[in-house]
Design a protein that fits this description.
Layout lengths: L5 E6 L8 E5 L11 E6 L2 E9 L26 H13 L4 H7 L3 H4 L11 E4 L1 H4 L11 H9 L5 E2 H5 L5 H9 L3 E4 L22 H11 L10 E6 L5 H14 L3 E5 L7 H11 L3 E4 L5 H13 L4 E4 L11 E7 L16 H12 L3 E5 L4 H8 L4 E5 L10 E6 L5 E2 L2 E2 H12 L3 E5 L8 E3 L17 E3 L4 E3 L6 E3 L12 E3 L3 H11 L5 E4 L9 H10 L5 E4 L12 E6 L13 H13 L10 E6 L5 H7 L3 H15 L6 E9 L2 H16 L6 E13 L2 E10 L2 H15 L3 H4 L2 E6 L5
Parallel strand pairs: 8-13, 8-14, 9-11, 9-12, 10-11, 12-13, 15-27, 18-25, 18-26, 24-25, 26-27
Antiparallel strand pairs: 1-2, 1-4, 3-4, 5-6, 5-7, 16-17, 19-23, 20-21, 21-22, 28-30, 28-31, 29-30
Length: 735
């Protein structure tokens, strides 16, 4: 290689750990680090990112290829974000090219320019505003939806497409002169839904104290500090977020706000839009690629001062960052469970540290890792111990199912409580983490149950649809009440949300009943419709699954029933108690807000379990202290660090053979790291594939990561690795 040759190191999105060295054509300038380049790779071309300008290379000169087009004049990934992503690739042991590509919106991964013009918007004409939508024919439903949506604000074609308005309908509206292109949006343009100044609620003393302490570090020379905002449900955590964001906007700085699931927190997004209008950019999987690209670009340019989104929004560019907030930081949806298995919460802390800005982790039920960080002084704990309003905390009552009769998961005391609250004109919320009609179809004659043919799991009965369905692989077949083995009549055993809803309809025929689960909200717009009906009082009883715990504010709900608190009491996963405590306290927190006192009824067969004793008192701190003691004795996180190897194959031997190779490679160099397994998963077969796992455990992070690195070098590319799908999960949430 000529001494004058210029080199670049390019990370390409392929399943290989390293970046690749390329030449820069003679006379061309070195592309800046963080820019996208098109490079020859294999028999084709790939789009990668420049990560280094090495002085030398170990690659023979004859094998070096020359980069093609440089796609960016300025870096697509700034220095802080690039450094954070490279840290993540190393920490989670994932190929750096795949990690960097993951942080870019789809159009940039395809090679489109960052500075291409934004998508045009449509607005109503005066003629269009005068159209009576009710008089339009049924064949013009899309046109009617567009006219209704455009009454509030101008929208892009992508935004209208998300509301089931296709391009031909827009063309017809334009031909009728009912809509016209809108002027380009600008960051300063006011949103007509924006909340006027001076309508903010009065702060409590606890809220003010939390705000003052966080504000003391903002904009300082050493601005990074991690805060745990531990506030009971209804204590006003969201208003603290809003005041912090407003202060950042006034100072011209950006805020990144992560939420578990945008679709399940519409009230928060609505409040953000009302308060901050066009300062807001939303990044999550439910928006179109074009919307995501436009939002990313506004954040990249600094036009969007508030970036809100789900897990992947942690990769948003923040050129003028001032604050990072993670709402409901305990929520497991922040951990990616496939591919690049990162924790968005943990990456948010890393990014805040590199950006030298505060990070606020908010929750009524913090994860034990975060709680322990606060105990150890690594995070500053701020507490909101009291609810806003005169109602106070809800009263909690335990129903011992060993002493009381129940029908379809509804005990006699709970049914009586439901009747009392409905008579008072209030709403009732019932939590059961089982969807469908019944979890099993059982033959009492031959004692057999309907099994999935592709998973080690029973099929769930969905009576209204007339099918049995596997909730793990999605397989379904027609519901047949006759046993396929002996021909006897089978029965549906247990209760899911659908069966509970049917029983409630029989018990309370005048009540308006709705369900909130994956089945009832699968159609577009169904989730918003259910939540809107609850908010407006058009639902008396809401029955739901885990979706009920996601931060909803239902001010008219005064009774919450937990139909089966025993799920998780005796789980084999070390985190089962933590998840159960978080779920029960989160759903119980929906009972009683403002001036309406609430009641919580918890049904269980184990009323004396020590975990339930903590939850009855609503004392998460007592639970967390007890759980941390158990974790320490069992050498579980946060007092140990884990790496979990997953493998799956069409045959059991394929998955176990690869993990056995991992164990042998690790045994030769493991040092202080404990290696456990391999072993099949408790549900070994899923979707027709056999699954197994192997665990690395260490008291310290450094030796764990060294062993993972060395083991990867030993097994990657081996014949056994090619016969199985496998991955490494650092800091796993499920074992």
């Amino acid at each position: 290689m000529s001494p004058r040759s210029k080199l670049v190191r390019v990370a390409v999105p392929v399943p290989l750990a390293d970046a690749f060295d390329y030449l820069v054509a003679a006379g061309d300038a070195l592309p800046p680090i963080g820019c996208r380049v098109r490079v020859p790779f294999g028999r084709g071309e790939r789009i990668g990112l420049v990560v280094d300008h090495p002085a030398t290379t170990d690659v023979a000169a004859a094998r070096l290829k020359t980069i093609g087009a440089v796609l960016d004049a300025a870096p697509a990934l700034g220095s802080e974000l690039l450094a954070s992503l490279r840290w993540a690739a190393e920490y989670y042991h994932h190929p750096v090219g795949a990690v960097l590509s993951h942080a870019l919106p789809g159009p940039l991964r395809e090679g489109r320019a960052i500075d291409e013009p934004p998508e045009p918007s449509w607005q109503l004409t005066e003629l269009g505003r005068g159209v009576d939508v009710a008089r339009l024919p049924r064949t013009a439903r899309q046109q009617a939806r567009a006219l209704i949506a455009l009454r509030e604000t101008a929208l892009t074609a992508s935004e209208l497409d998300a509301q089931d308005v296709a391009a031909p309908a827009l063309a017809r509206l334009e031909a009728k002169a009912w809509i016209e292109p809108a002027p380009p949006r600008t960051p300063a343009q006011a949103d007509p839904r924006r909340e006027p100044p001076g309508r903010e609620p009065e702060l409590t003393a606890d809220q003010r104290a939390a705000l003052d302490e966080i504000a003391a570090t903002q904009g300082t020379a050493n601005g990074f500090r991690a805060y745990l905002l531990h506030g009971v449900t209804g204590s006003g955590k969201t208003e603290v977020y809003l005041r912090l964001i407003a202060a950042q906007l006034a100072a011209g700085r950006q805020t990144l706000l992560l939420v578990p699931e945008i679709g399940l927190t519409p009230q928060l997004v609505r409040r953000l839009r009302e308060r901050f209008g066009e300062e807001l950019a939303v990044l999550h999987s439910a928006v179109t690629e074009r919307q995501r690209f436009d939002a990313w670009r506004r954040a990249y340019r600094g036009d969007a001062r508030l970036v809100v989104g789900t897990r992947s929004a942690v990769f948003a560019p923040l050129p003028s960052a001032g604050l990072v907030i993670v709402d409901e930081e305990h929520d497991p949806s922040y951990k990616q469970q496939t591919g690049f298995r990162y924790s968005a919460r943990d990456l948010a802390v890393v990014r805040a540290q590199r950006l030298d800005v505060p990070v606020v982790l908010g929750s009524a039920t913090p994860s034990l890792e975060t709680f322990n960080n606060a105990l150890q002084g690594r995070y500053r704990k701020l507490t909101l111990p009291r609810r806003i309003g005169s109602a106070g905390s809800p009263s909690v009552r335990v129903v011992d199912l060993n002493l009381h009769a129940s029908r379809q998961a509804l005990s006699t005391p709970l049914v009586a409580a439901i009747g009392q609250h409905l008579t008072a004109g209030h709403q009732v919320l019932l939590f059961l983490n089982r969807r469908g009609f019944a979890p099993a179809l059982f033959c009492p004659t031959c004692k057999s149950a309907e099994q999935c043919r592709r998973c080690d799991a029973r099929m769930t009965v969905h009576a209204r649809a007339g099918v049995v369905r596997c909730h793990h692989c999605g397989a379904e077949r027609a519901l047949d009440w006759a046993c396929g083995t002996c021909g006897a009549e089978r029965i549906a055993v247990g209760a899911g949300t659908q069966r509970v809803g049917d029983e409630l309809a029989a018990l309370f025929p005048a009540a308006r009943i709705a369900r909130l689960d994956r089945d009832s909200t699968s159609r577009k717009g169904a989730l918003d419709a259910v939540l809107n009906d609850v908010e407006t009082g058009n639902v008396d009883i809401l029955v739901g699954t885990q979706m009920l715990t996601k931060g909803h504010d239902f001010p008219r709900v005064t009774l919450v029933g937990v139909l089966n608190a025993d799920q998780g009491l005796f789980g084999t996963d070390p985190r089962s108690h933590e998840r159960l405590a978080q779920t029960i306290l989160q759903v119980a927190g929906r009972a009683g807000r403002a001036d309406l006192p609430g009641e919580v009824v918890i049904q269980t067969h184990h009323p004396d379990h020590p975990l339930l004793a903590c939850l009855i008192d609503g004392d998460y701190t007592a639970f967390a202290t007890l759980a941390l003691t158990e974790r320490r004795e069992a050498a579980c996180p946060p007092f140990a660090h884990l790496a979990l190897w997953h493998a799956e194959a069409a045959r059991r031997e394929g998955a176990l053979a690869f993990l056995e190779q991992v164990r042998l490679a690790a045994d030769a160099q493991r040092g202080a790291v404990t290696v456990l397994g391999p072993a099949p998963l408790s549900m070994e077969r899923k979707g027709g594939r056999y699954r197994a796992q192997l665990l690395f455990r260490s008291a310290d992070r450094a030796p764990l990561h060294r062993l993972v690195d060395r083991t990867l070098l030993a097994v990657r590319g081996s014949p056994a690795a090619r016969r199985a799908r496998w991955s490494v999960d650092i800091d796993p949430l499920e074992i």
